[in-house]
Every structure is written in structure tokens, then in C-alpha cells.
Amino acid sequence: MENKTKTLPFMFELENNNIGVLFNTLYYPPTYTYAGIKSFMTGTLPSIDDLLRNTGIIDMEMPQNILSMYKKLFSKFVLFGNQDWIKYFPNLFKYTQFSDYYDVKNYKMVDDAMMEDIFNTSKTDEWQVMCIHFCGLDHIGHGYGGNVEMIDEKLKEMDQFFKQLWNIIHSNTESDKPPLFVVFGDHGMSKTGSHGANSLYEIEAATYIFSKAFSTRGVVSLNHHLPLRVKSVDLTSFMSMMGTGQIQPFNSFGLIPEIFEKISKPVDWFKYVGLNCMVIFQHFQRFFSKNDMFITNVREDLKSWKSEMKLISKNPNKTIDKKLVQRIYHRSKTMQEFLLETFIGYSYFYMIFSVVVILMRSPQITVDRILEGLLINQIEKNLIFSTSIFLIVKGWNLAKQLTLRLKLSVMMLMTFPPLL
Question: How far is CA 128 from the centre of its chain?
Fold first, then answer.
């Protein structure tokens, strides 16, 4: 399982031809499906609410996200695979086909059943955005472990599927409008096949982003050696700006990854960096005085950026101020690091307090329903609740070793300053 060029030959071929990027995405624990998709789509961190959403205990609809932004540009969304996506993104999909997501012993038919329909749909003009959530690889891990030959076979199968889909779509797409392909895992997998905790194997998953448009932008070489790592929240910024050319969701902490400077036109990169900084700055400035020197410097840089953008609108061939864009990018990076460190805290007090608040907000949630989804695993020697719990999903036969790291709700953190 070490040589992925043998299990994913087509994807590596695209990367070597400079029309794609391959890197590892780092997710924030707890590493389960809802949290991973939310992080990718919204640019926000997991919360106690999300843990309950993953079990279906409370409403699963995503906050402001990439797909809701895409909806302003596209009208035809189709979905294949995990039916929970219609709960994540209600009233979005024009056509859906679901797989038997909850049968973890089914790793072959769960994917095969929808492949032919995907190919047939891809040949039509009945879609503009296609979302596919394959479950087979995840099922192999849960059912048989994370270090079995079936995983390599499944990866080869996925690679061949992607190759066929790539060829079909390009044969039915105008050459001047190449589609964007994004292939990502919403979480990693431990050696035993589980996920949910914060080991490197569980928080890390591969991401592939491909488009023939990349090859037209003078890229010398995008090939690199793993591990190149990108935060999951940062992909939100890329997907927003590359997909719509507009600002990312306002609740996002994402910083557009530097690697994408190589596949962007200089004027576009200048635009993206400024828009990105504006969103991060709106979160950051809440913590400091308006007269703080760093705050003042960011304001001045953004003011200069806006002036430059006005000049660029009049003269698209204007030379980009490279020092300004570098300065803004590094200020954004500093602000993001502060925000992530601030919101990635673990506190048993806030965990319990958050659950109480959720119960108060939603009286229909009973203790029985909470216990149906959550089970406190252990009490540490000092009688403080451990931050590790088991996640038990009703109908699944895998209550085994899904240790999850609880995260503090951003709402709780921003409302109540630390007391302990």
C-alpha cells in the first residue's frame, strides 16, 4: 500500500502532466463524516453541535457554505451516494441516487450500484454540479481493518472510475470551459480501520484537484512529494474563489493555500488574497482594540489593496504590487493562526455546559436521545470527564473504537470567556 502510483495511476498521470495538484488535507478532530464535510464546505471548526448532528439527533443543515454560493451561479445539482447530503444541503439537488450507506459489510455493491447511473448522467446537460459520495473505502476500514489488500483494490477501482468519468465529461464539454474536479476524503483512517480521534492517520486524507484549465496558466511543475499539507478550512477559500471568483463564506477561517498561486493568474491571485484577508480580518478584529498597531496595519494594507483593485479594473494589464500582496497574505496567516489557536481549546466545563445549552435550546431532545448517540467512555483519575467519547450510530454494528475528540462550540467560545 506504499506505492500509490500503482493504485492511482491515472490521478498521478494527471498530476505529472501539470493539470492537477495532489496534497494531504489535515482535518480537525473529531474526525467523522459530518465534521469533515462541514470543515471543507464552510471553513469552520467542528463543535459540540456537530457531534449531535452526525448522529441525527439535531438538525444537520450546514451553515453558509460553498454549495449555497454555487447555487447563485448554477441551478442543476445532482447527488450520488450518501443520502445525508440532502440533510446537509436541503432543497439543493435536482436529482439524487442513494447507496446503502449504513451496511458497512457492503463495500463493493454500495459503489457499483450507482456508477452506471453516474456515467449516464454525466453525458447529459441535466447537471452543472455533481456531488458523489462513495462509501466503499470507508466500509472496508470499518468492516475489515485499515491495512488489508481490499483497500488497494478499491483505490484502483476508484482510479479507473475517475478516468472513465474524466473522459466522458470532457467528450461532452466545450473545450473552452474545462470542468473542475475535486476528489477528497472527509477524514482519514487508523490502522485498525476506524476514525474519529486525532491520530495522524485519522486527521489526514488525500485531496486531488484537477482541471485542464491549469495547464494553460504557465505552470512549470506542480508535481511534488508528499507530505504537502493543507488545512481543511483553507480549501473552502480555494473552492469559493476558484469556483465563483467571489469571496468565501463569511463564517470561514480559511486561508487560500499558497500552492494555488501557481495555478492562478497574477491579477486573480491579488484579488483572492485581498478578499480572503477581509473575511479573516472580520473575525480577528473582535479580539483587539481598534487602535491596536496590527489592526491599523491591516486596515492600511486593505485600503491600499482596494485602491489597486480600482486601478486594475481600469487597466487589467497593470503590474501587480507583489510586496503588497505578500504582506497581506502573511498578515492573513498570522490572524488565522491566532483564531485557530483561540477556538481549538478543550474544556470539560464547556463540553458539559454546551450540552446543557443545546438541551435548553431544543426541548424535544431527551436524555435518552443523547445517550443513544453519545457514551462517555471514561472518567480520569481526577474525576474530570475525559474529552474522549464513543460515537454510536443507530443501526450500525461498529460501536468499536470510534473514539472522538470533543471540540468546543464556536458559539460557546465567543459567548463565554474562559473561566478555568
Answer: 20
Burial of 221 (0-12, 13-18, 19+ CB in 10 A): exposed
Q: What is the DSSP letter of 379?
A: B
Closest to 389 in 3D by CA, of 58, 34, 381, 399: 399
Q: pLDDT, tens digit, for every residue of 72-108?
A: 888 899 999 888 888 889 999 999 988 766 666 677 7
Q: Which residues pair with 98 in a beta bridge?
A: 81
Q: Decide the pairing of beta strands 20-26 and 229-231.
A: parallel
* pTM summary value: 0.75
Query: Which CATH number characterizes residue 64's domain?
Result: 3.40.720.10
Q: How far apart are CA 288 and CA 285, in angstroms?
A: 5
CB contact set of 118 (below 8 Å; sequence gap of 6+)? 80, 130, 132, 165
**Residue 290 falls within a domain, yes or no?**
yes
C-alpha 258/C-alpha 224 separation (Å) is 14
